[in-house]
Design brief:
alpha+beta; 4 strands; two-stranded antiparallel ribbon; 150 residues
């Protein structure tokens, strides 16, 4: 309920959506079921920075969808968001049985897409050795796999 109050008082995209649906607090399962869904069009309508739920001076990074099917969705991140995202990736690695004794070659792209840096942050939080390769460059990819496996 503190988060609902903060969103509504900030006049953020999500706060406005909650107010439009008359939601000011959650007490029961039926209150939870009344929460509005966000659709892709909602996210695009918030372009470019309408999804911010924190003041701009607290935004440390942005990521974006590709925009291949329309306007890209830009997602602002606070330092806490970045930390939480890395923690989620760390948990995924742990679930897969990866430990700080493993080496993780990151092959998704870096840049505005959130995957590459998310995989890297999670692996670093886990304490694993990270090789931030990105996509392509097959010969170098294979060489790194071979060299670091020795």
């Amino acid at each position: 309920n503190r988060q609902i109050d903060a969103l509504c008082s900030a006049g953020s995209f999500y706060g406005k959506k909650l107010m439009e649906h008359g939601i000011s607090h959650i007490e029961t399962p039926s209150d939870f079921e009344a929460l509005p869904f966000s659709e892709k069009s909602d996210l695009r309508d918030a372009y470019p920075l309408g999804l911010m739920t924190a003041p701009e001076e607290k935004i440390v990074r942005i990521h974006s969808s590709s925009g291949t099917t329309g306007l890209p969705v830009i997602i602002p991140y606070t330092a806490r968001d970045v930390d939480d995202w890395g923690e989620m990736f760390k948990r995924c690695y742990e679930t897969a049985g990866i430990t700080n004794k493993d080496r993780i070659q990151i092959t998704p792209g870096y840049g505005l897409w959130t995957a590459g840096i998310g995989f890297q942050n999670g692996a670093e939080k886990l304490g694993a050795m990270v090789i931030p390769m990105g996509p392509g460059n097959t010969e170098k990819q294979l060489a790194m796999m071979y060299i670091l496996h020795l």
